[in-house]
Structure formats: structure tokens, C-alpha cells
Amino acid sequence: MNIKLKLAELQKSRKRRFPIDESSVFSQEQPHCTTSETDTENGEDSIKELIKFEQGITNKGTVAIWYAGYRYTRQRKNKDNWRCSNRDCTATAKATQNENGQFLGTLGIKEHNHLPSIPKKISEEIRNRLKNEKHQNKRPILAEVRANVPMRFTWH
Q1: d(CA 76, CA 154)
Q2: What is d(CA 134, CA 140) in angstroms, rounded to the nearest whole number?
Q3: Looking at the domain assignment, is residue 137 inside a domain?
């Protein structure tokens, strides 16, 4: 009996599951492809799905990757290990950058213990657009953002 597998199974069953409704962005199928890799512990061939991560940038300017509303930051410099940017979460991923600049990899065994954050991703994209367009007029970007804000969040 493998104790590590039993322990991992028990930990998975104790985590709270968050419901995702049918209209959610995360219920849609995410892009991925499959590959065959050798498991180093058992020496067995296992099929793992390679996931295409989206690239982002943190407030400090380091590279971050996104998948299904979760942001991962590099665990150590020049390594392929990534961890969830929420420091209370133990979810991990392994990803490498290919020659096209895309990040491909797999998710770790541990699951997220919090909900995904779509507004955080949107705000990060807008902030990066504002930073990149230093000498241009920022009013069109701000007008676009204000136009897309739902009425329930306005100050009227």
C-alpha cells in the first residue's frame, strides 16, 4: 500500500468544493493537449495533459501565468515550478516557455482552496496597458473601462 497516494487522497476529500454555475467562464473547456511522460517515482508511463497558460505580469514586473482564473508566480528564478499567487493556497503548476513564447505545462496535485479571480485578471491587463502606453493619451483606455462597468457599481 502506497502511503503517499493514500495521504493525497485523504487531503483531496477534506477540501471544500466551490460550486461553479453553468454560465461561468470556468465551466468551459480550457485548451490543452496530451503527452506521454514517465513517472519518476513508479517508472510508469502516464498520460498528462499539457495546458496552455496565458502570460501576465505582476505589479513588480515579474512574469505570471494564468489558467482558469488563477494566477501563478514563479517559485524560484529560472525554474519551471510555479505556485498560486495567493500565498494561503498550496496549488502548484509546472510550465515551460516554448520557442513561440507560450507557456505549456501541467497542474500540480494540490487543488486551490479559494475561488478564481476574474476581476483581478482584468485589472492586471488594464494596468499593464496603461503602463505600456506611457506617452500616449490614456483617456480612451479609461473611457473604455468606465463604459464596461456595470450600472450597479457606479456612483450615481
Answers
A1: 41
A2: 13
A3: yes
Q: What is the Cα–Cα distance from 75 to 78, expressed in whole angstroms?
A: 9
Residue-wise pLDDT tens digits, 93-121: 998 888 888 889 988 888 888 888 888 88
Q: How many CA atoms lie within 13 A of 59 on its CB side?
A: 3
Q: Which of 88, 110, 96 is nearest to 65 (CA)?
A: 96
Could you tell me if residue 68 is inside a domain? yes
Q: Does 63 share its domain with 105? A: yes
pLDDT digits (tens, 9 = 90+) for 22-50: 444 443 344 445 444 444 444 444 556 78
Query: Letter for the amino acid at 62?
Result: T
In a domain? residue 140: yes
Give me the amino acid identity at 77: K
pTM: 0.58
